[in-house]
Amino acid sequence: MNIYSALKFIQIDHEPVNHLQVVITDQSGKPDAGMTDLLADCLNKIDIFVDLSKTDRVSDVIDDLNLLTPLPYDVLEEYQKILEQPITGVNIAMKKQLIELIYAPMV
Question: For residues 43 and 20, what is the distance between their CA atoms, to the nearest angstrom?
Answer without folding.
Answer: 9
